[in-house]
Specification:
By secondary structure, this protein is α/β, with parallel strands linked by helices. Helix content is 33%, strand content 18%. Helix 2 packs parallel to helix 7 and helix 5 runs parallel beside helix 6. It is globular, with a radius of gyration of 16 Å.
Length: 203
């Protein structure tokens, strides 16, 4: 497992306030019917960053496809996947949430569209929400990218964990990172860099 070194006083909280979004790390996408070949490779990096985040008091939001059988707009393209209430729609055991984490069901690519994510961010941070959104999970050029767009238009700083997101192909992954960097001003950082950043009281 990847480990990020913590400062001696882990009670320090960054000047900026961040929320971590873990997008679609579900059985169907990691091990099941719509498996992303490289999904397992990012699990250790996500585990390490979540551990550091929780020890630092950062909230974690698991944003998960929970489709209904009538969601043909995606099923016509990808086939049925992540049906609400099925094993395929459950978060992988490797990243099992704690009782303190937020679970955000979604039915489209974006974690914000027609979900309660924004309300939960306000509950955690107040009316203005967090300063920045850190995105992990799959897929870089699809759900991560659409979620990043909705974070961007809400005025949040967008941070993408380069080694904590992935896509069906390396080309798709790289193009997604470049698109978010170019069009949303996203910071693309390694998970270790992110850990050090939000543990720094200067932000």
């Amino acid at each position: 497992m990847v480990r990020h070194p913590l400062p001696k006083d882990t009670r320090r909280v960054a000047r900026k306030r961040y929320a971590i979004l873990v997008v679609d790390m579900l059985n169907d996408f990691v091990y099941g019917k719509l498996k992303c070949p490289s999904a397992k490779k990012i699990i250790p990096q996500i585990q390490a960053l979540l551990k550091t985040a929780k020890e630092s008091g950062m909230p974690v939001f698991f944003c998960n496809d929970a489709h209904l059988r009538g969601d043909h707009y995606e099923f016509n393209l990808w086939g049925p996947h992540a049906l609400k209430g099925t094993k395929g729609a459950k978060i992988i055991d490797d990243l099992r949430p704690s009782d303190h984490d937020y679970i955000i069901p979604k039915r489209t690519y974006s974690a914000f569209y027609q979900t309660n994510l924004e309300g939960m961010l306000e509950k955690e941070f107040g009316k203005m929400g967090p300063d920045g959104i850190i995105i992990l999970g799959i897929h870089t050029n699809i759900c991560a990218e659409h979620t990043a767009y909705d974070a961007f238009v809400r005025g949040f700083e967008v941070i993408i964990a380069e080694d904590g997101v992935t896509a069906f192909t390396k080309k798709d992954h790289v193009s997604g990172l470049n698109y978010m960097r170019r069009n949303y001003g996203a910071k693309v950082l390694k998970t270790g860099q992110i850990a050090r950043m939000f543990l720094d009281p200067k932000g």
